Amino acid sequence: MLVKRVDAKKEELLDPAGAAWRKSRGSKVVLSPTPLDIQPTEYVRVSWRGRPYGKVPSMRVSALHNGRDIFFRLVWEDDSADSKIADTNQFVDAVAVLFPIAADAPLIGMGIKGKPVNAWFWRADWEQPKNVAAEGMGTTQRRDDPALAAKARHTRGQWDVVISRSLNGKRAPKGTATLQAGTISKIAFAIWQGANQERAGIKAFSLDWQELQIEA
Ligand code: HEM
Fold it and tell me: What does the pLDDT read at residue 129?
């Protein structure tokens, strides 16, 4: 996936309807349900056995940067915009992008001890996306991160979300991935369908890391 460099302001690039996105067709990413057998708790393995999840089959991804910030536009079909939790059995729509912090961190299970990964996590009921770091399941750490931003709209049965963060130099803060113009990293995706009560490890995800080439 190529992240093209464009001369555009953050406000325009953060806007899913922004002119800068019109020229960028994006690529289709196929998603699959996360494996049930490796879910960390027996409760989850038993309660989701035989019950369909990871219902979003694919998404369209476009990526641009302006030398200061990097932006991912994520579009997927979802008939309902679930953005409120009014009861304990209600969950919201959400999307995340994942990057390796350790170059050879595994995707399946979100890293392992000593080989962390970093996700930017957007939920439909949040103003701001959150930074998530993990070294395997059961280790996810969520925190606010002012460097992250997102803007979303749900129209004609589709979520259209732009999520962004500042590009950073060599010394990325702990728990965050290094993303710099002129370098290559990797990326993966996950989508939670709130209407199907999907949350935490129960979601649709992209099976393999995709190469992420950030134009100089
Ligand atoms: C085989 C693939 C995957 C499995 C089995 C898996 C499993 C899990 C589990 C069990 C949790 C619950 C928290 C915990 O155990 O620490 C979790 C949380 C999370 N996962 Fe994954 N995951 C996978 C792939 C991904 C991918 C590809 C992404 C992002 C693109 C991702 C993003 C997240 C986020 C953001 C959370 C935190 C959710 C929250 O705080 O509510 N995961 N995952």
Answer: 98
